[in-house]
Amino acid sequence: MTEPTELKDNKMTENAEASTRMRTIRTLLDGYASLSVPQLLEPLSHGFTHRVLPRSLGMPARDRESFALHAKGIFSLFEKFQLVPEAMFEDGRQRIVVIHARMEGTLKHNRGAWRNECVMIVRLSEDGTEVEEIGEFVDSAKAIEMRKRHAPTSFTGNTGTGAMEGLGLLGTMVLIAVAAGAVFAARGLFAWYARLGSFGGV
C-alpha cells in the first residue's frame, strides 16, 4: 500500500530536522574537543544559557559570555580533551537531545589523564542549527577534585564546594539510571522536562 504524499513529506521533513539537530550536536562536541573557546561558541545562540542541575541547588546560570569565561578556565588545564557519547536520545517535538558522555583528557604539566562523565540535556533552536540551552548533571567528586587540585587561581567556575557536593547526589543518581537502563532514563528525563515546560519556566 502506497503512503499518502503528505505523510511521506512529513516523514522527510522530520528526518531532515533530526539530521540538522544531530549535526549541531556533533559541532558542539567537536567544539569541546578543539579546546578553542571561539569554536565551542560557534553553535551557541546569542541567548544561550548553561545550567547546573537540579535548580534547587541555587547554582547561577551562565549566559554565553560567562560560559565562555568558564570554558576558557577549563580548557587552560588540558593538552587534549574530548566528550565521547555513550548514548544519545532525541525528542524532536521538544527539540531536546540527551547525551550521556565520557569526558576524557590529558592534563597539562604532566598531571596525567583525566576521566569523568556527565549527562547533558541540550535544547536546540526551531531549525536545529543553534544550541539554546544546556542543562548538565556532573560527577561532583571529580568536579571538586578539579577545583581543588587543578584549577588555576584565576579560574572562575562560579561553583562552591557545598553546592557541588549537593549536585553530586542527584548527578550520580542520574548516571546510575543511565547505566541501569539508558532508554528508560531518557524517557524519564523527557517526562521531567515536559512537566517543567522549559528550562527557564520555573
UniProtKB/TrEMBL annotation:
Keyword Membrane in annotation: yes
Transmembrane spans: 167-194
Key words of the record: Membrane, Transmembrane, Transmembrane helix
Alphabetized SUPFAM superfamilies for the sequence: NTF2-like (SSF54427)
Name by which UniProt lists this protein: SnoaL-like domain-containing protein
Organism: Diplogelasinospora grovesii
